[in-house]
Design goal:
single chain; 321 residues; alpha/beta; Inosine-uridine Nucleoside N-ribohydrolase, Chain A; 12 helices; 38% helix; binds calcium ion
């Protein structure tokens, strides 16, 4: 009996949600020449479905300015059923200005002063780099930064039918911000292209969102054009929900395979995504002997995670409430 009680007690202790800071360059629905990425929105909706696993301490936006702030507020209003108010802060507008304090950098620093936190940073990591640069005393308070970036050496980013090569967006928007994190010795988890590329959400996967409820319909109406745009670019039915795998590292870590304690380097060579000249590549290899930088690198999503994603969206769906 006593053993059973202890077992229950330890299970309860393990089941406490992990408190997490969520930093995003969310841009679903932003008016532009082409449809914009939807993956941050999916990651946010998923995160709100697992209050038993993660507790969002705060959310900060990077890059899309007022739009990112407003659309996050809108999605929280629709999909936050956790019973908790999640504060939202505007961060860097340009994603380039490391060191410029913002509401986001001040709030993240204040949060880190009170507790150690992991940071899920699914955009350029400028806000985090600003905190690290301006408040180095807080470095030990950062448990880990989970990002969507990085590659194994020479891996081209060619989704779908491999007709088109794309960049490592979050890294290339601000390579210096990644340098700041690695130089500070912070534990960085890289869960990027290689880990996510074989997940593909197509028409039939998201059809249930096409219902009469305002929230679901709004999401559906912005997933669809993004899907069409991806079909044109990459030749396959669907889109890759990139930012959901770094979230998955925090909510469902057993659904991914990792290279642990792997050396990291920034290598510069010819741009493989069509632009002239050279560009930096964030690369990991156990062969790199001349670098102190280390990361956890997620290289594969195991079967089952895509189903979790779809179940989360279904559970979140306004139709189900
Ligand atoms: Ca993102």
């Amino acid at each position: 009996m006593k053993i059973l009680f202890l077992l229950l007690l330890s299970t309860f202790a393990i089941a406490q949600p992990r408190r997490v800071w969520f930093d995003t360059d969310i841009m679903i629905g932003m008016k532009d020449k082409t449809p914009r990425e939807v993956d941050d929105a999916i990651a946010l909706i998923m995160a709100l479905q697992h209050p038993d696993k993660i507790d969002l301490v705060g959310i900060s936006t990077v890059a899309p300015g007022q739009y990112g702030y407003d659309v996050t507020q809108k999605l929280l209003g629709w999909y936050n059923r956790t019973g908790r108010t999640i504060p939202l802060y505007r961060g860097s507008e340009t994603a380039k200005d490391i060191g410029t304090e913002t509401d986001a950098s001040r709030a993240l620093a204040a949060a880190l002063r009170t507790e150690k936190l992991p940071i899920l940073a699914i955009g350029p990591v400028t806000n985090v780099a600003t905190v690290v640069k301006n408040h180095p005393e807080l470095i030990p308070q950062i448990e880990e930064v989970v990002v969507c970036a990085g590659r194994t050496p020479g891996l081209p980013f060619k989704p779908g039918l491999e007709k088109l090569s794309v960049g490592d967006y979050n890294f290339e928007m601000n390579p210096d911000a990644f340098r700041v994190l690695f130089d500070a010795g912070i534990r960085v988890v890289l869960s990027g292209y290689e880990c996510s590329v074989y997940m593909l959400l197509g028409d039939t996967d998201i059809d249930f969102l096409n219902n009469k409820h305002t929230a679901d319909q709004w999401v559906y109406d912005h997933l669809r054009p993004w899907m069409r745009f991806n079909q044109q670019l990459f030749g396959v039915d669907g889109f890759v929900p990139w930012d959901t795998t770094p979230l998955g590292y925090l909510t469902h870590p057993n659904y991914f395979k990792y290279y642990r304690d792997i050396p990291v380097r920034i290598n510069t060579r010819r741009n493989d995504a069509g632009a002239p000249g050279d560009k930096p590549y964030l690369e990991v290899s156990y062969d790199y002997k001349d670098t102190k930088w280390r990361a956890v690198y997620a290289y594969k999503t195991l079967p089952g995670f895509e189903e979790i994603l779809l179940e989360d969206l279904k559970r979140a769906s306004a139709q189900k409430r």
